[in-house]
Write a structure and sequence with these properties.
By secondary structure, the chain is mainly alpha-helical. Helices cover about 60% and strands about 0% of the residues. Helix 1 crosses helix 2, helix 1 crosses helix 3 and helix 2 packs across helix 3. The longest helix is centred in the C-terminal third of the chain and has 22 residues.
Length: about 140
Protein backbone atom coordinates (compact mmCIF):
# COMPACT_ATOMS: atom_id res chain seq x y z
CA UNK A 1 0.00 0.00 0.00
CA UNK A 2 2.92 2.33 0.62
CA UNK A 3 5.04 3.26 -2.35
CA UNK A 4 7.87 0.86 -1.59
CA UNK A 5 10.22 2.58 -4.05
CA UNK A 6 10.27 5.78 -2.02
CA UNK A 7 11.68 6.03 1.49
CA UNK A 8 9.18 7.24 4.08
CA UNK A 9 9.53 10.70 5.50
CA UNK A 10 9.35 11.01 9.29
CA UNK A 11 5.82 12.37 8.88
CA UNK A 12 4.74 9.38 6.77
CA UNK A 13 6.29 7.01 9.30
CA UNK A 14 4.34 8.77 12.06
CA UNK A 15 1.03 8.51 10.19
CA UNK A 16 1.71 4.84 9.38
CA UNK A 17 2.41 4.17 13.06
CA UNK A 18 -0.97 5.67 14.05
CA UNK A 19 -2.83 3.39 11.65
CA UNK A 20 -0.76 0.36 12.66
CA UNK A 21 -1.38 1.04 16.36
CA UNK A 22 -5.12 0.90 15.70
CA UNK A 23 -4.59 -2.41 13.90
CA UNK A 24 -2.48 -3.78 16.78
CA UNK A 25 -5.18 -2.71 19.26
CA UNK A 26 -7.48 -5.21 17.58
CA UNK A 27 -5.33 -8.13 18.70
CA UNK A 28 -4.44 -7.32 22.29
CA UNK A 29 -6.35 -8.65 25.25
CA UNK A 30 -8.40 -5.88 26.76
CA UNK A 31 -8.37 -4.98 30.43
CA UNK A 32 -10.98 -3.31 32.57
CA UNK A 33 -8.67 -0.85 34.31
CA UNK A 34 -7.82 2.37 32.55
CA UNK A 35 -4.07 2.64 32.37
CA UNK A 36 -1.74 3.98 29.71
CA UNK A 37 -0.09 0.56 29.37
CA UNK A 38 -3.34 -1.37 28.85
CA UNK A 39 -5.86 -1.41 26.04
CA UNK A 40 -9.41 -1.11 27.37
CA UNK A 41 -12.54 -2.39 25.64
CA UNK A 42 -13.34 1.20 24.76
CA UNK A 43 -9.90 1.58 23.12
CA UNK A 44 -10.42 -1.58 21.10
CA UNK A 45 -13.94 -0.54 20.10
CA UNK A 46 -12.58 2.79 18.88
CA UNK A 47 -9.90 0.96 16.87
CA UNK A 48 -12.56 -1.24 15.26
CA UNK A 49 -14.69 1.80 14.48
CA UNK A 50 -11.72 3.79 13.14
CA UNK A 51 -10.64 0.96 10.87
CA UNK A 52 -14.06 -0.17 9.59
CA UNK A 53 -16.65 2.65 9.61
CA UNK A 54 -18.19 3.71 6.30
CA UNK A 55 -19.00 7.26 7.45
CA UNK A 56 -18.61 9.56 10.41
CA UNK A 57 -15.73 11.20 12.21
CA UNK A 58 -13.59 8.06 12.57
CA UNK A 59 -13.97 7.23 8.86
CA UNK A 60 -13.03 10.79 7.90
CA UNK A 61 -9.96 10.71 10.17
CA UNK A 62 -8.89 7.32 8.79
CA UNK A 63 -9.30 8.50 5.22
CA UNK A 64 -7.45 11.75 5.92
CA UNK A 65 -4.54 9.90 7.51
CA UNK A 66 -4.44 7.27 4.78
CA UNK A 67 -4.38 9.94 2.08
CA UNK A 68 -1.24 11.42 3.64
CA UNK A 69 0.65 8.20 2.94
CA UNK A 70 -0.91 7.32 -0.40
CA UNK A 71 -3.37 4.72 0.90
CA UNK A 72 -7.08 4.58 0.13
CA UNK A 73 -8.81 4.56 3.52
CA UNK A 74 -12.02 3.14 2.06
CA UNK A 75 -10.12 0.19 0.58
CA UNK A 76 -8.40 -0.39 3.93
CA UNK A 77 -11.77 -0.32 5.72
CA UNK A 78 -13.34 -2.69 3.17
CA UNK A 79 -10.49 -5.17 3.64
CA UNK A 80 -10.82 -5.00 7.42
CA UNK A 81 -14.60 -5.46 7.24
CA UNK A 82 -14.00 -8.49 5.02
CA UNK A 83 -11.63 -9.94 7.59
CA UNK A 84 -14.17 -9.28 10.33
CA UNK A 85 -16.72 -11.19 8.26
CA UNK A 86 -14.49 -14.21 7.69
CA UNK A 87 -11.71 -13.39 5.23
CA UNK A 88 -8.25 -14.45 6.38
CA UNK A 89 -6.53 -12.30 9.02
CA UNK A 90 -2.95 -13.08 8.05
CA UNK A 91 -0.50 -13.67 10.87
CA UNK A 92 2.15 -10.92 10.92
CA UNK A 93 4.96 -13.49 10.90
CA UNK A 94 5.67 -15.43 7.73
CA UNK A 95 6.41 -18.59 9.73
CA UNK A 96 4.74 -18.38 13.15
CA UNK A 97 5.36 -21.02 15.78
CA UNK A 98 2.33 -23.16 16.70
CA UNK A 99 1.75 -21.29 19.99
CA UNK A 100 1.86 -17.91 18.21
CA UNK A 101 -0.52 -19.17 15.53
CA UNK A 102 -2.96 -20.44 18.18
CA UNK A 103 -2.77 -17.12 20.06
CA UNK A 104 -3.41 -15.22 16.82
CA UNK A 105 -6.39 -17.43 15.93
CA UNK A 106 -7.89 -16.91 19.40
CA UNK A 107 -7.44 -13.14 19.03
CA UNK A 108 -9.13 -13.21 15.62
CA UNK A 109 -12.12 -15.03 17.09
CA UNK A 110 -12.36 -12.43 19.91
CA UNK A 111 -12.18 -9.60 17.39
CA UNK A 112 -14.89 -11.13 15.23
CA UNK A 113 -17.19 -11.66 18.21
CA UNK A 114 -16.69 -8.05 19.30
CA UNK A 115 -17.31 -6.86 15.72
CA UNK A 116 -20.61 -8.74 15.71
CA UNK A 117 -21.52 -7.25 19.10
CA UNK A 118 -20.80 -3.74 17.85
CA UNK A 119 -22.70 -4.29 14.59
CA UNK A 120 -25.82 -5.56 16.31
CA UNK A 121 -26.05 -4.26 19.86
CA UNK A 122 -28.67 -5.89 22.07
CA UNK A 123 -32.12 -4.37 21.85
CA UNK A 124 -33.21 -2.25 24.76
CA UNK A 125 -36.39 -3.21 26.55
CA UNK A 126 -39.41 -1.17 25.58
CA UNK A 127 -39.88 1.94 27.64
CA UNK A 128 -42.91 2.05 29.90
CA UNK A 129 -43.22 5.75 28.98
CA UNK A 130 -43.88 4.73 25.38
CA UNK A 131 -46.58 2.33 26.54
CA UNK A 132 -48.23 5.06 28.60
CA UNK A 133 -48.25 7.45 25.66
CA UNK A 134 -49.72 4.79 23.38
CA UNK A 135 -52.51 4.13 25.89
CA UNK A 136 -53.65 7.77 25.86
Amino acid sequence: MINSGNPQTPEEAFVTSIIMQAYRDLFVSVRQESNASFTTQSDQDQAITFLTDFTGAFARHRNDLCSLIGWDGDVLAARLRGMMEGDDFPHPSTDPKPAARAQHEAAVERIRRRWQDLKSPPERPASSVGNLLAAE
